[in-house]
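Protein in question filed below.

…
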Amino acid sequence: MRLNKYIAHTRYCTRREASRLLARGEIKVNNKVVKEESYRVMEGDEVTHLNKPLQEQIVYRYLLINKPKHFSTDIGDKDSKYIMGLIKKEDPTGLIAVDHMGPKSVGLLLLTSDKALVEKLNQKNRKVRRVYLIELNKDIEKKDINKLLKDRKTIKIESASHVDGYQANYIGLEMTIGSENILKGVINRMGFEIQRIDRSYYAGLTKKDLKRGWIRPLQEMEERMMKHFI
């Protein structure tokens, strides 16, 4: 990496300011003054400004997707397209999905290069608020919804109910512990099948103004909010 770019990546100063420091002879590499912006910093090199070490900061990427149907976060899912194919223009290198979403799942999905965050979000019994609109294969009665709320072994559903304006085979559901796969298993054991599951909220994030299939970087304020909620 070019020396002026390396200094900027440490977040010590901007690239333009780094060029000024180089011109003044204030930057050393391996204890030798270097003034050339084009100097290539190699792995193991020590870069300092007035004897203060400068280390490149890791910049994580966060992408929000309003996931369409027929895409999966599992590359081995033969019945769907791999989600990374949807973001080819955004360069998917190093990105992973924070959780699993199959071909019948749509809505809010976060992709990131921050593996520590993914591990934290997926810790057992970690409370992560998620909100879904679920379409079932048949109408569900209030007694069945109440039965769903009582299942506490592998999942924690905070609320579930019919949704105004939707038919009786739709329910709105808020969950804090458990995965979508576990939720599907619980619903299947009750004699229902999920036709579609649409996530509108995840760990402080929403898909507001993000149309189906659209992608955008997470804003700094959203990143802070998300990390606050977990």
Remarks:
- The radius of gyration is 24 Å.
- The mean pLDDT is 92.
- The longest helix spans residues 180-189.
- The first strand starts at residue 27 and ends at 29.
